[in-house]
Specification:
Strand content: 25-35%
Oligomer: single chain
Number of helices: 9
Order of helices and strands: EHEHEHEHEHEHEEEHHEEEEH
Largest sheet: 6 strands, parallel
Length: 221
C-alpha cells in the first residue's frame, strides 16, 4: 500500500476512533493507533501502521511515542472527560500542529476549546441533526453546516426545475441561494454557467442562509 506523507495518530479505539483509524489506513496514510485497553489495540494491528497500549494521560508515555512529530492527532476519548481533557492539553503542550477531539457534551466542548483543541466534534449530536434533516425533508440528501447561519445542502432537482437553465430558475434572486455545482450521474459540473441546464434528478449543491435554504426546499423544488 502506497503511503501518503501525512502522519496521523488516533487515541481511543472505540467505534468513533476505530472507524477513523481504519479509514485513514485504507486511504494509505501512516496511522498510529493508541488505547489503554490491550484487547482493542490488538484488534487494530492490521488496521494501523503502528499500535501502542498506553495511558494517554501519562505525559512521558505520549512523548515517548514522538507524537510531537505527527501532523494530526485525534483524541477520541469522548466517554472519559478528564482523560480527554488531559490528553488534549498534553498534546497541545507538545506542539502537535492539529488536534481534533471528541466531546461528550457542550461543557466538555467548552473545556476542549479553551485548552486549544483545533476542532471539537460531537459524532452522536451531529448524526442526530443529520438524521432529523433527512427525516423532515425528502429533498435533502446531505448537508454541511458552515456556521450557525449558513449551510451547504445536497438536494435532488424535481420536475419543477426540469430543463430550466440557472437563469430561468432564478434561484439566487428569488431565494438568495447559490447553486455551486450540478451532479448528473457521475459527471459533476462545478461552478455551472448561467445557461447550463438542470434536469430532473440532478443533484444540486446549494449554498445559502439556513432560512433561505429552507424556503428554497419548500418553494423552489
Amino acid at each position: 500500500m502506497a503511503k501518503n506523507k501525512k502522519q496521523f495518530a488516533v487515541i481511543g479505539l472505540g467505534r468513533f476512533g476505530g472507524s477513523i483509524c481504519r479509514e485513514l489506513y485504507h486511504l494509505g496514510y501512516e496511522v498510529l493507533a493508541i488505547d489503554q485497553d490491550e484487547e482493542k489495540v490488538d484488534e487494530y494491528v492490521t488496521y494501523a501502521t503502528q499500535t501502542a497500549c498506553i495511558d494517554s494521560t501519562d505525559e512521558k508515555a505520549l512523548k515517548s511515542l514522538g507524537l510531537g512529530n505527527f501532523d494530526h492527532v485525534v483524541v477520541a476519548i469522548g466517554d472519559h472527560i478528564q482523560a480527554s481533557v488531559l490528553t488534549t492539553l498534553v498534546l497541545k503542550d507538545m506542539n502537535v500542529p492539529i488536534v481534533w477531539a471528541k466531546a461528550q457534551n457542550k461543557y466538555h466542548q467548552k473545556v476542549l476549546d479553551k485548552i486549544g483543541a483545533d476542532r471539537v466534534v460531537h459524532p452522536e449530536f451531529d448524526m442526530g441533526i443529520r438524521v432529523a434533516h433527512n427525516m423532515t425533508s425528502e429533498k435533502v440528501i446531505d448537508f454541511i453546516d458552515l456556521s450557525n447561519d449558513y449551510t451547504i445542502v445536497e438536494v435532488y432537482a424535481t420536475k419543477k426545475l426540469h430543463r430550466k437553465t440557472l437563469i430561468d430558475s432564478n434561484v439566487r434572486a428569488t431565494y438568495g441561494v447559490t447553486i455551486l455545482a450540478i451532479k448528473r450521474n457521475e459527471d459533476v459540473n462545478v461552478s455551472p454557467r448561467p445557461n447550463d441546464q438542470i434536469e430532473q434528478g440532478d443533484m444540486l449543491i446549494v449554498l445559502g442562509h439556513k432560512d433561505e435554504i429552507r424556503r428554497f426546499e419548500n418553494e423552489g423544488l
